[in-house]
Design brief:
Layout lengths: L1 H10 L41 E6 L8 E5 L4 E6 H6 L11 E7 L9 E19 L3 E20 L2 E19 L6 E19 L5 E9 L13 E9 L8 H4 L1 E12 L4 E17 L10
Antiparallel strand pairs: 1-2, 1-12, 2-3, 3-4, 4-5, 5-6, 6-7, 7-8, 8-9, 9-10, 10-11, 11-12
Length: 294
């Protein structure tokens, strides 16, 4: 009950919460000036500015690190999936799992011409690896994985609408329904499948934003890099200390998400319906940069 009340208050919090008068001379990192790369696991066409970077930590990967993002130029952002590079040493492979992700933004929105970008990711699993196991399903992958996505975005005042579409490739994907009364396992070899997503973001204040999104195919953050799934997420992002004098707190962001994954091939689903699943990240700007919102 406390979780439900807390969630209700956050969703209907007035924009003035978390702000105070007389703070114009203090150093701040407001949430609504930042580029969102993968809000609640949907895609946006935005990139980090040159030298701007993000470290992101999912509780799913602890005690191992999760992701790092860095703006190579204002239009090119690299993502380093730290988990496979490090976790590979602790698997039977005994070596890193190669992973690389790049995003390039072509333009900025001009009236009804949207912001447009593309993203490509490559991962190679040396042998069959169990990606994750939940009470309802298990996923294994083997060989090379690749996705390509074209992304389009519109910004209207405090609202963002983002679309993406592309293709996923997987050398071998194994999906299993873990229900003893309905055990289903399917294997897909050298499969090409589409991916697409649509997401809506609302940023009414400097410390909180609200999100809802649907996707089909591979995603980056939750139930990650698994083709052939439907996913409906909703939640919010928080900058609880955006005016704090300590940079590590001022740059802290928390995404709270409801994750609803559906795997029709094996008649399975993984549901987390209340948006309290946490994802932490820190977004640092270069000195003198006001923000990365594009």
């Amino acid at each position: 009950m406390r979780i439900i009340i807390f969630t209700f208050l956050l969703f209907f919090a007035p924009p003035s919460w978390g702000q105070a008068e007389g703070d114009s001379l203090k150093k701040t990192n407001p949430l609504n000036e930042e580029a969102y790369l993968h809000p609640i696991d949907c895609m946006s066409p935005y990139t980090l500015r040159k030298g701007e970077w993000i470290y992101a930590q999912s509780i799913q990967t602890l005690p191992f690190p999760s992701w790092a993002f860095v703006g190579i130029t204002d239009k090119l952002t690299a993502q380093v999936d730290l988990l496979p590079w490090i976790f590979g040493f602790f698997t039977d492979f005994k070596k890193p799992i190669p992973s690389l992700n790049l995003r390039y933004r072509f333009n900025k929105q001009n009236k009804w011409v949207p912001t447009v970008a593309v993203e490509a990711m490559f991962v190679h699993f040396w042998d069959t690896l169990q990606r994750f196991e939940t009470p309802t399903l298990t996923v294994w992958e083997k060989g090379s994985y690749f996705h390509f996505k074209s992304m389009f975005g519109y910004r209207f005042n405090d609202w963002d609408i983002n679309f993406s579409g592309g293709v996923d490739y997987m050398d071998q994907l194994i999906l299993q329904n873990n229900d003893p009364a309905n055990t289903i396992q399917k294997t897909f070899n050298k499969s090409w499948t589409p991916n697409f997503s649509i997401g809506v973001d609302y940023r009414p204040s400097k410390w909180i934003s609200y999100h809802v999104g649907y996707s089909y195919g591979s995603t980056l953050t939750y139930l990650e890099n698994v083709p052939r799934k439907h996913q409906l997420n909703y939640g919010f992002r928080l900058a609880p200390f955006y005016k704090n004098k300590f940079g590590i707190l001022r740059c802290l962001r928390i995404e709270m998400t409801a994750i609803n994954g559906f795997f029709p091939d094996i008649e399975a689903k993984q549901i987390f319906p209340i948006p309290v699943f946490p994802y932490f990240y820190w977004q640092w700007k270069m000195p003198g940069k006001k923000g990365s919102k594009q």
